[in-house]
Specification:
Layout lengths: L2 H24 L4 H8 L3 H8 L7 H13 L8 H11 L8 H8 L31 H10 L3 E3 L7 E6 L17 E6 L1 E5 L2 E4 L6 E6 L8 E7 L6 E6 L5 E6 L3 E6 L12 E4 L5 E6 L6 E5 L4 E4 L8 E2 L3 E3 L6 E6 L5 E6 L3 E6 L5 E6 L5 E6 L5 E6 L4 E5 L5 E5 L6 E6 L5 E6 L3 E6 L4 E7 L5 E6 L5 E6 L4 E5 L5 E5 L6 E6 L5 E6 L9 E6 L4
Length: 530
């Protein structure tokens, strides 16, 4: 190769690497996160950005699709920038313009800046706030501790009447008719209109009468926890007795948090669980609460004894190895004798916890396995895959029992209902599907997220399903009808995980870093799921 040819190739590699890096930064993604979307690990992304190699055509098309649908390209220049990226990668096949234009017609998974933001406008200064508080400092404190709700004209049909009160005691309204059930929801409101802004704090609440056919769940944001120097909170899990919360962080650690009777963290510092050498993807408690398991990019499964003592950190009580691929999910069987893991090699593995040996290897998916779950009776394992299917497996024999098909994109989260009669699955296609396990029929499709669904969980009563997604929203769904009961906002970045306290009184959610959120965060909500 001549020096001139070498220099041209080096220049092209450098330019392609710079473009990849810039578009990834536009999406605020890490290399592992972009690799996950493309269907690789972080290593190829790193090699492309470091000008060490070019992607294959199929990977480059997936990369361009992500940059397009997620909004990395400049608005109005999407085609030109995609063609430039293709040209810089020195592909031997021509750029498929027809494919790109078809892809461009797909719904966006982000909100363009020209559309109205879901985030309320900035609040007024404390000195401008009308309230019964005696000092500005008190108003500031209330503003931090209370939830905010924006009332707009689209609520007009459900808005019955507004009553100014000084406490949260519901009023009995004589105008209510017997034909409909209505409930009062005391909320702190930010009213925005042409005439200006009126803000009322918790000491000067507005009591709003909304039409409803169910009792209110009285949801409040309760507490935010900044986990530390981590890029994401990949998974949170409550212990069965409700005394602890474990978090798998986007570094090499887990954290164990002490919880009070209300399901919220106490003032006690969390315990660091040290032992993994790379990204920790998942964590799960045993059903008896006696141990905690974790799965990592370092290809190891670790078992921990959950306890809080005077030590600053805990070491694992047992380590299980035997796989050559990183593991993205882990769950313990109801018997506490088996655990299951899955990851990048398209298979799921069931392990004997006592011996540390593989019990069964489940082969059948044509894409990586993102999530798995044991049925309540422990006889069945469900797996969700990038091939868009959900499979059921016999735990004892390792035989495939059934394949659910219906999602149009990768299936990446699932959960059994507490009674074991329904399986819920979430997907990159922005939907959640409910499957009836005795007939293998689809019951409902829940639509409401505007981007992929990352995590789902059933309430202890089985009547409510919780979901969290890339659209920075947590939704509560009524399982029997599929209607959205509540949408929880106020997140600054993508929601990776949701979990419910065993008593149904609190919800924990974990996010990645993002604009306004320089570190991974756990947000707690107080619930009333009856």
């Amino acid at each position: 190769m001549s020096t001139n040819s070498f220099n041209k190739e080096s220049e092209s590699l450098r330019n392609f690497g710079n473009l990849c890096y810039q578009y990834r930064k536009n999406l605020k993604l890490t290399q592992p996160q972009l690799g996950e979307l493309v269907g690789t690990t972080y290593r190829p992304i790193q090699a492309w950005e470091n000008s060490e190699s070019f992607p294959k055509p199929k990977n480059l098309k997936r990369l361009i699709e992500i940059f397009l649908t997620e909004g990395a390209f400049t608005v109005g220049r999407e085609l030109a920038e995609a063609e430039e990226l293709w040209e810089k990668s020195q592909q031997k096949v021509a750029f498929d313009k027809e494919w790109f234009l078809e892809t461009q017609q797909k719904p966006l998974t982000f909100s363009p800046p020209e559309l109205a933001s879901q985030v309320p406008s900035p609040l007024p200064k404390p000195s401008d706030v009308e309230s019964n508080s005696s000092s500005v400092g008190q108003v500031e404190k209330e503003r931090e501790s209370e939830g905010y709700f924006a009332v707009s004209l689209n609520l007009e049909q459900n808005l019955e009447k507004v009553y100014p009160v000084k406490n949260e005691t519901p009023l009995t309204l004589p105008t209510l008719t017997a034909s409909k059930v209505r409930f009062l929801k005391p909320r702190t409101l930010l009213l925005i209109g042409l005439t200006g802004v009126l803000f009322l704090t918790g000491l000067a609440l507005l009591l709003v009468n909304f039409l409803s056919d169910t009792a209110p769940m009285v949801i409040k944001p309760a507490k935010n926890i900044i986990v530390g120097q981590t890029i994401a909170v990949n998974q949170v899990a409550f212990s069965p007795d409700g005394k602890y919360l474990a978090s798998a962080d986007g570094d090499s650690t887990l954290k164990l948090w002490e919880l009070g009777a209300d399901g919220l963290p106490t003032e006690r510092m969390p315990k660091n669980l040290l032992g993994h050498t790379s990204y920790v993807y998942a964590t799960s408690f045993s059903r008896d609460g006696k141990f905690l398991v974790s799965a990592s990019d370092d290809q190891a499964i670790k078992l921990w004894e959950p306890r809080l003592d005077d030590e600053l950190s805990l070491k694992p009580s047992k380590t299980i190895t035997g796989t050559t691929k990183e593991m993205w999910c882990v769950v313990v069987s109801p018997s506490n004798k088996l655990l299951a893991t899955a990851g990048a090699n398209n298979t799921a593995v069931i392990w004997n916890i006592e011996t540390g040996e593989i019990f069964k290897t489940l082969v059948g998916h044509s894409g990586k396995v993102w999530e798995l779950a044991f049925s309540p009776d422990g006889q069945t394992l469900a797996t969700a895959s990038a091939d868009s299917t959900i499979k059921l497996w016999d735990v004892q024999t390792g035989q495939e029992l059934y394949t659910f098909r219906g999602h149009t994109d990768q299936a990446n989260t699932l959960a059994f209902s507490p009674d074991g009669k329904i399986l819920a699955s979430g997907s990159w296609d922005r939907t959640i599907k409910l499957w009836k396990l005795d007939t293998h029929k689809e019951l409902l499709t829940l639509s409401g997220h505007s981007a992929r669904v990352n995590s789902i969980a059933f309430a202890p009563n089985g009547q409510v399903l919780i979901s969290g997604g890339k659209d920075k929203l947590v939704k509560l769904w009524k399982v029997s009808t599929g209607e959205v009961l509540e949408t929880l906002t106020g997140y600054d970045s993508e929601i990776y995980t949701v979990a419910l306290h065993p008593n149904g009184k609190s919800l924990a959610s974990g996010t990645e870093l993002g604009e306004g959120a320089p570190q991974g965060t756990i947000k707690f909500w107080k619930l009333n799921l009856r």
